[in-house]
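Ticket 4471: requesting a sanity check on a complex prediction with magnesium ion. Repro inputs:
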Amino acid sequence: MNTPAKPIDPQQSGQPFTGADAVVAGLKHQGVEMIFGMIGGQIMPVYDALFKDGGIKHIIVGHEQGAAHMAEGYARATGKVGVVLTTSGPGATNLVTGLADAFMDSTPLVAITGQVSSGLLGNDAFQEADMRGITMPITKHNYQINSVEELPEVLAEALFVALSGRPGPVLIDLPRDVAVAPCSRVLAAPSAPTGYKPPYRGHPLQIGRALKVLRTARRPVILAGGGVVSAGAHEELTALAETAGIPVTTSLMGLGALPADHALFLGMPGMHGTGYANLALHQADVILCVGTRLDDRITGKLEAFAPRAALIHVDVDASEIGKNLPCAVPIVGDAKPVLKALAQGAAGWEAKPDYGPWRRQIAGWKRRYPMTYAERPGVLAPQRVVETLGALLPPEAVIVTGVGQHQMYTAQFYPFRRPRTLITSGGLGTMGFGLPAAIGAKLGRPEREVFLIDGDGSFLMTIQELATAVRYRVPVVALILNNSFLGMVRQWQEMFYDQRQAETDLQPPPYAEVARAFGGLGRRVTAQEDLEPALAWARRQAAERRLPVVLDVAVQRDALVLPMVPPGGANAEFIPCPGQKKED
Amino acid sequence: MDRMSPISVLVRNETGVLSRVSGLFARRGFNIHSLAVGETDDPNVSRISVVVAGEPPVIEQVVKQLRRLVSVIKVSDLTDKPRVERGLALIKVKAEPARRGELLQLAAVFRARVDHVDNDCLILEVTGNREKVEAFIDIMRPHGILEMARTGQIAMARGRGPMADYWAGGGPDQPEEEATYNLARTSDPNWDGEQTNAFPEREEK
Ligand SMILES: Cc1ncc(C[n+]2csc(CCOP(=O)(O)OP(=O)(O)O)c2C)c(N)n1
Ligand SMILES: [Mg+2]
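Returned C-alpha cells:
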C-alpha cells in the first residue's frame, strides 16, 4: 500500500495531464485493474483518459445498477475494492440501489460519478443531480471534488476509506471542469482522513473477560456474520470453535466461514434458519457474536431472542455493539486478531470446560428437526435442484443469488465450504443483484466456476446484463429456479394474507430463448431426470465456449421455505419443516 | 423522562458536513433539542454542539453513530460532566410605556440586556443555560411575546476535558475514547454480572 507517490512526467505524452488523467493514474497506482461503468457527457474526459492509458480493463454495462452490482460481486469474490464509473445525473442516480446494497452489506466500492462543471452546480443544469446529498445516507463517505489540487488526495483517501475498518461504498463526484483542468501532482499515497482510525486489535482486557465468560459457560454458541468473511477470519473462527468445542451458527452473510459439513456447524439461524440453530441460540447461556449486526432476520422478536444468554459482541464498528441488544462483553476490533486471541486463550485453558452435554442436546435437536422438504413426482423441488448442484460443484465454486425463496433454499441446502463462495444481497435484499454480481465475481475470479441461482422474478430485473456477459465472454451459469411466481411474496400471501395472491403470479419470458437471443446459451429443464445432464452440459458449455449459460428450471410452484419464524415472532416458535411436529 | 444530553462534535470543516450530521439524526430518529455550529480556532475544524433528548442507550448510539461519520474528528458526551453551557434568546415583548418598568425589573433579575426600546415593545437578550433561558421565556410569556429567536446551546467541559486534548496535540478521537456500553442482561447463574467497557484502560484513567 505504501509505495511512494511517483509523479508522472506530463511531457511524455505531449499533452498536459489533467484531473481525468490523475484519476486513471491514481486508480492504477492503487492496484485497480478493472472498472465497471457507462459513459456519458460529463464523464467523457475520464473515459478519454482511460482510453489513452489503456492499462485498466473497463466493462461497459447495460445499466449503471448493473455496474454497481458487478463491482460488488467483484469485491466480494476477491476482497478487493470494486470501482464504478458513471456520468452525471441519471447515470449517477442509477447507482443508488447498488450503493445502498453495498452499504448494508459492507462491501468496499468506489464510485466515481461525473458532474456538471462547478460553475453550473446548483443551477439545475442538464443532467445535474446532487449526488453528494442523494448518497449521503447510503455511503460510508462521499466527496465532491472542488479543485484539481485536492483530487489525488481524495482519490487515495476514498480507496482507503472504502477498504479499511468496516468496508463500505464511497462516492466521488467529479465536476467536469476539475476533470479537464491541468493537474501537476498526479499521485498521492493512500492515507486516512483526520480522525479516521478504525480499530484493529481488540482490547486484551476485554478478550480476557470474554474468555472467562466462555470458560464458565455451559451452553455457549458462536454466531458469526459477514464480518468474519470480510476480515478473512475463517481459520481463526474454525480454530476457536474446535479448540473450545463451541457450536457455530452463521448468518446469511457469514455462510462459508465454517464449512457446512463441519460437526460443529448448525446452519443459519433466524427467520429461515434451522430449527436447531434457533433452539441452540434460545437455550444458550453465552453467545459470542462476531461481525454480525444482529438484524431482525436473525433475532426475530428482540425481547424473545436468546433470553438466557449473555452476549459477547465483537465488531470493528462500535456502533453495532449494543445497537439492537444489550451486550455483556463488548470487544471493538477486527474479527481476525480478536478470534485469534480468543482461540489462543482457549488453547491455554487448564481446566477445559465440558460442553459435551450441550453438544449432545443440540445433536438431539438436529435429529428432531432435520432440514427436509416435500417432494412430488413429476416436478422438481427447488431444494432438490440446489442440493444436486451442491453435490456436483467443487468447494471453491462461487454461488451468487437473487432475492426470494431461491435465495433461502440456497442458504439452507447448498453446502458452503469456503469463505467468499456465497455472494448474496443480505441487508438490502435487492432483486436483480444476482446476474451482474455473478458477472463481477467471475471477472474477479476467472479460475473459479461461478453459478447464479436466481428467481424468475429477480432475473428479469437486470436481465440486460446478459449482453455484458456475452460481449466480454463471461461464462457464468445462471440457474433459474422458475416457479413463475414472485415466490417469497406468494409464500407470505399464503401464510399471512389468506391466500390472496395479489400481483405475484408471473409469466416470465422463455429465458432459455432470451439467453440465446442475447448470444448466450440456454436450456429449459422440466423433468427431474434432465437436471443432472443439463447441469453437466451447462458447465461444459461455459468452460468451452466462454459464454453465459442459462438453465431455466421449472420447479414446484407452491413450495414453501421452511422452517420459518413468522415475522415479529419469537425464533423458538419456528414453523418446522414439512412432516415435523414442534414439541413445546 | 428523557434526559437532555449535550454532545460536542468536532468535524472537518467542509461543505455538507452539517447535513451529514443533521441527516444522521433525522434518519436514525434521534431527537435533536438544539443544534449550534461554529468555527473553532483551527480553520479546518468546526464544532457542532447538539443537545439530544434520550435515554442512556440512545445517547450511546448517538455518540457511536456520530463517530462512524468519516467527517467527524471527535465526539464528546458532556451529559455527566461538569460543564459550562450557554444559549442566547432574543425576545420581543409587548411593552406599552406603563408596563415597561415591570419588564425591566424582571430583565434585571435574569441579567437580560435591553437591546431595543420603543413605545410599543422591548427586545430583551438573555444568555444562560437552557433552564435559565427557558425560565425567562416563561416569565415573559404572559406579557405577550411578539417574536423570539433562540440559538442552540453550546457547551464546554470544565477543566481540560476531552476536547482540550485535541488542541493540546492529543489529536482526534482514539476509537477507545469514552466507549460506554449498554448494560448486560442476563439471568444466567454462571454470569458474574460484571459490567464491562470495551476499552477499560481508558475508562479506568
Ligand atoms: C428490487 C426489489 N423489489 C421487490 C422486492 C420484494 N420481493 C422480495 S422477494 C420477491 C419475489 C422474488 O421472486 P423471484 O425472484 O421469482 O424469487 P422466488 O421467491 O420466486 O424464488 C419480491 C418481489 C425486493 N426484494 N427487491
Ligand atoms: Mg420466482
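Notes from triage: The radius of gyration of chain B is 21 Å. Leaving this open until the requester confirms.
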